[in-house]
Known about the structure:
Number of helices of chain A: 5
Helix content of chain A: 40-55%
Radius of gyration of chain B: 34 Å
Order of helices and strands of chain A: EHEHEHEHEH
Structural class of chain B: alpha+beta
Largest interface: A-B, 20 and 20 residues
Number of strands of chain B: 19
Oligomer: heterodimer
Number of helices of chain B: 15
Structural class of chain A: alpha/beta
Distance between the termini of chain A: 26 Å
Strand order of the largest sheet of chain A: 2-1-3-4-5
Largest sheet of chain B: 6 strands, antiparallel
Number of strands of chain A: 5
Amino acid sequence: MPRILIVDDEPDIREAVSRRLGREGFRVEQAESQSEAESKIAAAEPPYDLILTDMVMEDPESGVRTLEAALSRDVFSEVIVLTAYGNVGNAVECMRRGAFDYIEKNTPGVDVYELLVIKIRQALEHRRMSLQTLRRYADIARRENIQLPGA
Amino acid sequence: MGDLPPPQPPQGFDAVELESFHRATRFLRSILDIDQLLHAILEEALDAVRGTRGFVGLINRSTGNLELRITAGQGWETEHARSIPITDEPGHGITIMVAVTGVPYVTGDVRRDPNYVMFFPDVRSEIAVPLVNRDGRTFGVLNIESEETDAFSHRDLQLLMALATQASIAHSVAVYRQREAMLIEVGNELASSGDMDGLLRCVVDRTAQLLRADDCAIFQLDPGGDRLILRAAGELLKDRIGSLTYHVGEGLTGWVVQNRQSVRVPNVREDPRWRGLYPLVQEEIIESYLATPILQRGEMWGVLRAARRKPASSVVSNEFTHRDEELLSTLARQVGAAISQHLLVDQQLRMERMAAWGEMSARSAHMIGNKVFAIKGQLNELEWLASKPGFRAQDVLDVAQRSRQSVFQLEEILTEFRDFLMATHLDRRPLDLNELVETTVAENCCRSGTICPNTTLEEGLPLVSADAAKLRRALGELLENAASHQPDGGEILVITGPWRADDRAAHPEVPSRPAWLREGGAVRIEVIDRGPGIPAANKSRLFTPFFTTRSKGMGLGLSIVKGIIDAHQGAIVEVGTEGEGAHFVIVLPAIAPEGSSDHEGDERLSNA
Lengths: 151, 608
């Protein structure tokens, strides 16, 4: 069962997202700040499959910092950034740094929760593929007795 | 005024007499109170020429009468006429003659003098000398009598004239100092007066008072620079404030703007520029006119003008003097500075608030967006719950309850937003702070879970000019704040009282304003709690928007409070110690009580 960490300083949002994702069969944990997220990411064993983080919390860069923490723990972790009004610039920056995608919380006329579930499934699929590819390479390497960089 | 002329000793006197003259001069120059001064002069004069009775009469230019202000010696009764019309027709007595001609007069036997009019039956000799001010205008008469025939020699006359000269100089000094003191007071008043309309009204009142003008008005140049609009005026024109206009160059008022010069006209009807469009006093009785430009940072801002009625007496002049013109220019400079200051403060406040506006728009969009996102999630869940066969009603109700909470929070944000924007829009009325505190405390007591504040309210507080709803909001916020920092119960104390010298000494952090130094000039409200208090590091940011240690709302609470207090020209400071509880001190300017603007000595000033 995929493990997801939801990071947001708004308790209502953590609650609503957790319930929705719980319904989809994910194991969801919560963090209410960048610092709590960083320590949870560092302590998680195995690493979270996906981190869903708010962009602006105690700091306008909170989303970016959380992304960095997630990728340095596990480079194949998937990160989706949630943005409220006016933070698209930062979200694009997150994409450049390796986030899977970003979602605007207030997209008019869109059921963002449905969108969120779709994106999460895509992200988890992406992670599964990445890990599968990695494993395949590892198998080949073992068979051919090749030293993989970083392995 | 610092370089007074050296005393001119009378000629042909011995050393003892000269010494006594100099002593008298020094003494007279040390007296600042005008009545006291005139009294001392009279006593000195009686003594010097060995008279039995005497008085000082001063010319009242409004009534055209000579008023016997100071008397000395035997026989003065209340029924003696103290106010005598001044006329140049003969037969009204020696004193009136001297007041009109300005020439001293001595008589050795009044019974044989056709100019004498009997006042006291026992008088035989009389000597009267004019009191002349620095402009050469007679402002009064010093009169000494004796029961002896031929009591006064030529030397006595010389002595009395020398004394009168010294008295006039000392009188001018005293008048000047009094005017100066009043100008400073007016300056302070202008610096601390609240809105622009209040400021201009205050200028009009004070100018009329200082200049003994029958009416006063301020016209402001409109932004286009071609019209003058009435902004403040006394009785006759006050209903036409904002509607009455002059073109630049039109009438005397328009001339002042066109030429950037003061104008002083002794008789308006003889001046070709005068149009008589909107006279300050009825046209047929207006006489002397004075107007001066108000410059604000070197730019023409408007005109300050004053007018005097025709005096009752045709002999006494009621014209504005060049000193009056100087005084009006000084006032106009103070007004210009006050307007600049006012505009500057206004601009600063606007800029601060605009900066806060920008940040607030971004923040509130963010916060509202977040809340809406949460509510969308709750709706999403409701749909899902409802679509399940055999769903539990309780599950639906739980989610509905949560979304209601979210909507409430949304409304809290919107309320803060509105209160922040509206903090400076006041509907001011005279208000009793104690009443306000009592109702606000009662409102807060009713809410469950809050601590009921104790109050110590000092009776007989001066009223404040305030927006009751806004002040209730501010005080309510402080009370709620105090309660929220003492979740397990505690204590809240609300104190009111005048803002006194010992309060100023106890709370030097509170900014000082000149108008608050006066007894009853300001009032204070203190809100004290026994919570954790404010860490020193947070004090400077305490009132800035979005600074909050609470999760509720946007963190605008205390900045709204400060916005409201600032808009009332008051001050709010937190003076508590961390660990001992928070202690807020609010100081609000009081409404000046009726009649406090009456300056003693105005009438005397007018004689200068």
